[in-house]
Amino acid sequence: MTLKTTKLRNAISFALVAGTAVTGTAFAQDAAPAEQAATTLDRIEVTGSRIRSVDAETSQPVLVLNREDIEKQGVTSVAEVLNRISSAGPSINRTFNNGGDGSSTISLRNLGASRTLVLVDGRRWVSGLDGSVDLNTIPSAVVERIEVLKDGASAIYGSDAIAGVVNIITRDNYDGAEASAHVGQYSEGDGERTSVAATIGANTDRSNLVISLSRVEEGEVMARDREQSAVPVFGRQDRSGFSANGKIWNNAPIDEDNPTGFGDLTVVPPGSTGVGPDGQQRYGLDQFVPYTTGAHGYNYAADNYLLTPQTRTALYLKGRFDVTDTISFVADALYNERRSEQQLAGFPLSGGTDLGNPADTALSGDSYFNPYNTIYGGDGRDVQWSHRLTEQARVYQQNVKTFHTYVGFNGSFQFAERYFDWDVGYNFNKSDQEDAQIGDANMLNVAAGVGPSFLDPTSGRVVCGTPDNPATPDVNELNIIDGCVPFNPLAPAGGVTQEMLDFILFTAQDAYQNRSESFTANLSGEIMELPGGMMGFAAGVESRKESGFDRPDAFVAAGYSSGNGRQPTAGSYDLDEIYAELLIPVLADVPGAQLLEFSLASRYSDYSNFGDTLNSKFGFKWKPIEDLMVRGNWAEGFRAPPIQTLFRGLADSYESFGDICSADYPGRNATIAAACAADGVPADFIQRTNAGDGYFGQTIYPFSFGGNPNAGPETSTSKTLGLVYSPSYVQGLNVTLDWWNVEIEGALSTPSVATILDQCYMQGNEQACSLFTRRADNHQIDYMLLAPANLAVIDVEGYDLGVDYRFPETAYGQFTASLNASYTAKYDSQSTPEAEPESVVGQYFDRDPNWRLRANSSLDWSMGDFGVTWITRYYSRLVEDCGFGDLCSDPDRRIDTGPAPRNTLGATTYHDVQARYELPWNGTVKLGMNNVFKKRAPTSYSTFANSFDPQYDIPDSSYIYMEYVQRF
């Protein structure tokens, strides 16, 4: 193995001189056993309850990852830490290139990122227009610990806490200074990462101030540099029909041998002279050959990022000043800037109505570059064409600036021999995002460029216009019309000149903003003495406003871009809430009930857009014996529709679908045939997509996604029942086992194209039929409106297991083992309440793996200043529908309705190792390797733009890193 960069090589050389080792476990367990943390009599607030208590055990399952746990994983972002936990489902991350925007999210229980509430220090963080939180706006350098509540909590926190709550606790009361550095890269010599951070904290008798500055630089990995992603479909030589060479579409004469008039031609590869009779570069029909994918198709995958680059810079401040002995002023502020980028192959540009473009984008019969030009003996026909602009890659860049401020007061007091805590504060969060899209075409200029053009004898240049309409010089003294540059879309690969590119391409500038501000006031304390202890309560109010906008570039909004057009989005809503919570200790220290307590909570929310909602919860905690605790919860939940759902402007999308009116649709029956005929579709109609003719493919006409201002909230019911066992006869062993269930009704979902077509042609639903239109000339579906509605039903059930064992210390050191596993027993979804439930457990869909089992385990050894941690990450097998013949693992599979080939994505286990040595001068050096055995991700044939799901590690590579921490 050759390390291609010197930074990592030098860092490892330094680390080897300093020494190696590590101590501690990699994955924390549920915060139930008392042995896991030092006992304290300070009243604390645990995620899932607002009541401060000396008991860290709650009736709800909470996973705690402390700073030491996080630092042992060799990752550089909060998102990477969270997406490794066993209860996490698939979510967007840096491996999303086509369709990614540099953000990373967390989706507990695979219920969606917008159904997982993210808090920072117990307060809401800014969310995107879709309601999800970008974890890349939270620097890992400021994290003290992360608490993950694996239960619904709308009664405590309000909207979005359906699948659970992630509470990121930042560093405070720190006294001293610390500097750290992380340097790493993949074993192939790419994907370099550098992270540096410095934290300073100072205490006085009445105050504390913490300042942290950090920067993370993460480099790209190209898809062409890994065998599994170097081609569009791993194991096949598939290519895009949009060739890098100019291509003529559908211009053959219609006759008995070619009744459709379809006969694609492409210019021969460079090597021919490409010179017309006048000595200028042009391509005649004798330089074109019939197009074939094998000879002329384009491998677009090689140009894509596999892992996208990103840079994050953050400044964090947190302070406290004790105004009196019982009242403190607290404040914190954060600035985080993210710069990220995605790259795709050059734009697959096309012209002509059959390719979904306006008529004036066809190459004019009077164009100098049209091989059918009458000047050269042709018939003067317009030409439908395509050309992949390999001369300029498509690059999408984001600059996201996140601002956070919290100011408030908190304190405590005693009244009637009762203890009380209170806080009031103002929380402000805002993200401003500026996007640049490089490589899209201005279709107005494309239309002008492919219009009439001729060789101007005066200048010797090809210019726009015709000899009968002589041009006049512009300010640049070029003989062209209004700055027009003739464009030759039929040029061979690399033949589009820079002058042509400068004319037809533009850089789109988009702007986004997400803003959240709230006022909160909370009071908690003691009410009365009960047999089990003091009854506690918490109550509070919150007033919050959410707003945001998406302002696309003017050309994008007007539909003049070659990329997907979209209209502006803007909107806001506000709400007022009030909640109350009770903790009722019924019994303590009696036979059969070392502890028995109940918890009750309810929250009333009044939204400006849809009205009010009331959500409650009930929980219990029972210790029949000292070693065993039984816990359970029942909770109502809701999710308010986010700004994008309510106010989204129409946005183009090229959907992949199957037109059930196509004569080659395998499920065609008499009902469908009759409904299609009634809609004017002929019996021999064949669907046309950008892949050619035949059922299923990506539409050549853009469909539209839009918002629904009448959308209402989702509602849910969550249930958990579990136990915590810490046997006194096995010191150091702690076991947790929890059953959980989440049912969601009125789930916001956008009906798929398939659902709309089925509702129209099979069910006779006129409203569904009104959502799309067909062209009169070729009957292709040229428009469809896709908008969200409260239609879906979801029912998810499973089990969580946690085992933590700290072995008795031996002469050979201290050993600790841990296991966290999440098993999904049921995941049923219904597109509508009337639809049949569909089980998706163990099924793979495009970028949506539904693992039955995820598990993490670790084995840790420490001895003195040395130590090593070994971590394993397990993903269970999946199956997917497969249409790639012998590439499928089960190509001959059949079901009652006919052939149903399937592919299995095998179970995958990753191994990570880290070693650490505590240096005599209060420093720590670490060496680590993630994916030690270079495990390849399971191959998928339904994943968009790749052959493996982006939740898996980069294939065929180990990530090697070195870290150094110096404390002062």
What would you say about this model in short?
The chain has twelve helices and 53 strands. With 968 residues, it is mainly beta.
Keywords:
mainly beta; 22-stranded antiparallel beta barrel; transport; signal; Maltoporin, Chain A
What sort of overall outline do the alpha carbons produce when their principal axes are compared?
A: globular
CATH topology call of the largest domain: Maltoporin, Chain A
**How much is the radius of gyration in Å?**
31 Å
Can you give the mean pLDDT? 89
Annotation, overall tally of beta strands? 53
Content of β-strand: 35-45%
- The multimeric state of the shown protein is single chain
Tell me the name of the CATH class of the largest domain: Mainly Beta
CA-CA gap between termini = 37 Å
The CATH homologous superfamily of the largest domain is termed: TonB-dependent receptor, beta-barrel domain
Total tally of structural domains = 3
At CATH's second level, what is the architecture of the largest domain?
Beta Barrel
Number of helices: 12
Helix percent band:
under 10%
Give the structural class: mainly beta
Q: Which residues form runs of ≥5 with pLDDT under 50?
A: 1-29, 31-41, 258-262, 471-480
Main sheet record: 22 strands, antiparallel, barrel
